[in-house]
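Title: Comparing notes on inverse folding

I've been comparing how different people in this forum approach sequence design from structure. To keep things fair, I'm posting one structure and asking everyone to reply with a full sequence. Here's the target:
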């Protein structure tokens, strides 16, 4: 995943010494090596570099977390947490990779379909 996302077209970059407050929306992929507080929406991939920090929510297809994140992730396909990463929040994804040495505090919800948990709840109520 790392090679695919980083080799793909990175449309937006928040540099290492940058601080951004607000909402970032991109059609392609975004790489964050600085500090971002707010919301990130990407139709392709979000790459949070090892020096990057996000405080807020991310909605994307794929995400690679190498830095620190506090917030919620909605990844329609895959989430990868690299060694040394830190995550606090709630994660929604289909596929998950967590390398050794990752700090993960929160909940993870994995499903192939968005409405799957709702259908399971309906069955339990019957």
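Reply #1:
Here's my take.
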């Amino acid at each position: 995943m790392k090679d695919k996302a980083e080799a793909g077209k990175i449309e937006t970059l928040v540099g290492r010494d940058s601080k951004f407050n607000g909402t970032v929306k991109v059609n392609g992929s975004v790489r964050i090596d600085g500090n971002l507080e707010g919301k990130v929406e990407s139709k392709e991939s979000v790459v949070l570099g090892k020096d990057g920090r996000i405080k807020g929510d991310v909605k994307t297809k794929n995400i690679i977390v190498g830095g620190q994140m506090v917030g919620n992730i909605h990844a329609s396909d895959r989430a990868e947490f690299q060694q040394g990463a830190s995550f606090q929040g709630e994660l929604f994804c289909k596929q998950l990779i967590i390398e050794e040495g990752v700090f993960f505090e929160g909940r993870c919800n994995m499903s192939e379909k968005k409405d799957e948990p709702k259908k399971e709840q309906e069955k339990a109520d019957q």
